[in-house]
Amino acid sequence: MYKSLRCFASACVMVASFLLAACQTPQNTITFTPPAAVGPFNAQNQNSSVSVTSRDLRGNQTVSQYTYDGQLYPIFAQPSIAEVFQQALQQDLNSKGFRILPNNAPAVVTVNVKQFYANVNQGNLRYKIDASVQLTIQVQSAKGEYSKNIETHRSQEGAFGAKTPEIQKVLNQAFTDAINGIYQDQDVSNAIIRLTH
Asked: Which range is the signal sequence, renumbered to this chain (predicted)?
């Protein structure tokens, strides 16, 4: 009886240690969700059909990284950054009245993600986070092409160290600014109309 009680106690200690270690592992993903597009619907845009694609041109799939207790922790986006911006662009064009086709449309609109990253500089008592988003939206058709750049920057400073929640806050601000830049833009819509008629 004593021996089985000792084995049970040892097993409980091991399970508790494992659970505590799992609780202390820093979060390494940030979820990005574009807000719904509320662009002005234009019935004349129904005459224009487009396909929407995206490309992630960044060399590294991390959106940030930070050091904690001497270890480097990379942070990734969920879903992928390319998927998020493709979804946002589709929502925007759909809300403005354009017909979205899976392929073989007269015009292809591509969002190229050139940069989506939060650089973290940490000292012993302070940190600074600089987030940057750079996109190029291209409209291509048999009649020609058009490109539009969207860039946003946000930063934050604070006391002690930065971890995922602080990084997420600054990246979300830069992300929201970029999405608003897409939603408020009329140049891409005008280019689609010009290149599909």
From this structure: 1-21
CB atoms within 10 A of CB 4: 8
**Helix locations, 25-152, DSSP H:** 81-95
Helix/strand number for the chain, H first, E second: 4, 8
DSSP 20-40: HHHHHSPP-EEE--PPPP-PP
Residue 35 falls inside a structural domain: no
Residues 143-161 pLDDT 10s: 999 999 999 999 999 988 8
CATH number at residue 162: 3.40.50
Q: What is the pLDDT of residues 10-35, one digit of tens each?
A: 555 554 444 444 445 567 999 999 99
36 part of a folded domain: no
CA distance 23 to 184: 42
pTM summary value: 0.83
In a domain, 31, yes or no: no
Number of independent structural domains in the chain: 1
The residue segments making up the domain with residue 93 are 41-196
Provide mean pLDDT across the span 153-174.
93
